[in-house]
Model the fold of this input.
Amino acid sequence: MHKQLSCHPLFTVRTEFLSTDERVSLSYDRARLLMQTYNLSLNDIQVCSQRYWSMMTDPIMSLDTAMFTILAAHVGLALGTLSPHIKQRPDLRDLVNRLLRFETVGIYLLSERGHGLDAFNIETTATRVPGGFVINTPREEASKFMPASTPTFGIPKVALVMAKLIVDGEDRGARFFVVPICNEQEMYKGVESIRLGPRPGTSPLDFSITRFKNVLVPNTALVASKLDDYSIPEFPLQAWWNEVWRIPYGTMAVTAPWISSIKAAAYISGKYSMHRCITSKGNSPLPIISFRTQQWPIIHATAVAHVMSNWYPIAIQQTMDMSLDPRVRHGMAVIVKTTACRHFQRCVPEVAERCGAQGTFEHNYMARIENDGKGVIIAEGDVLTLCIRLFSELVLQRYHHAHSILDENLDLLRQIPDGHRGETFNSILLPQAEPTIEAIGQAMAYSAALRSGLPKPILDVYECAVIRRDPAWYSERAGLTRLAQRMREDKAVTAAMPHLERYLDDLQIEGYVSAPIVSDKAWKEYVGTMHVYVGNAVSKSIDQVQAML
Done:
């Protein structure tokens, strides 16, 4: 939507030459620029409008994972959680306006160090007192982990803190509370932030441990349409899910940058392999893309990028279809995240490796985005845990490979005497959760690609990539021997390779790629910007060196 963003000075700076804190500061500046550029309304955020999804899927997000992390929490979680209450809570309007203008950064303090994904059992308390609530972290394990809460970068921050509402000594269930964290210079009284160490090789951010010591907030800090409703929920777990209702949308949104990243990795490695040559017999240059070992990783990543980018907007529509059961919509988000993220984890390291030493440097993007990608696996719900929850409830019977795997596990479940609560279910069936969910996603993505008319060579390469994930099943159930699978793959790659350059250009990611190895010209220009060490030292003669020895 806003292609000019990639040319903005904030996005053309070479981050590998900056210090850690300079990079963090840059990410906050970039996040502000995105907010100003897209100018989302609160309604855009609440209903996840087309404008909202345009921002979250902008390829620019894949250039700076720290920026995306800031925006995902600020927009999707903080503003999203506040949005349905604004009509009955006009007192929240000033805060919301400051958040929309990015004058204040919103963070989402849900998970605790001692609980992680078991966020239903958080321990932070909000005790009702005359005039408001007192927020406390009762023990170290209840510290909020790991949203960026430091005051280091001159930006006021406010948090939505999930805490147990305590009224007259009684636990009334988990609620969100608006808690000011810091102003431009320092933390607010009673709020403590401990900056965590860096995550190696990633886009840095001031990730933190946050805790509270007798922090008094007013009655209006309670995030609710009715400020006087302190009743105990009849169904506590469902009430908790109602509080964190933005998480399923977040599960969907965090997938977008990684689809763009697969595109970028395919483009970078493909273009590099076309111009990088070795000397062949007869002393003529031979591009390394000539080798099948180079061709498969690149055409694989290219096919995956096309299929995922085609499927993702279709999946968004299904996830946002309010006529569907909320569990189905969340299930769709889980399937998309699982499928796209696992494709990412297989494609990006492989193409980076095929770029040799160049693939290991940050300026060529792939090594950093590979490390950044490990964070998305746990963001908005750990992939494996999400799959286990969905797998345990799954009743879909629609896609052949996935359907067959599901049937195998259903048959096994019927043979287990202690059912899904027993140790056998835990040790035998649960490990099948993620492969089953991924198989469903692969089938959905392939079906969408087929309906959309993607080129047959792309479809065939994608099909071969899926077969590689479970070759035993295709051998046992589809009659494809190992040799037949290899021959099928060879035929698919052979058909696709003549069109590789067009397929790479069709990814429409070139404008967001700054890796200098995409061309000889770009590399030489990049080297020209780097510091050159020179001097006037004179080496000792060999006789002097030998005398010293």
Summary: The radius of gyration is 26 Å.
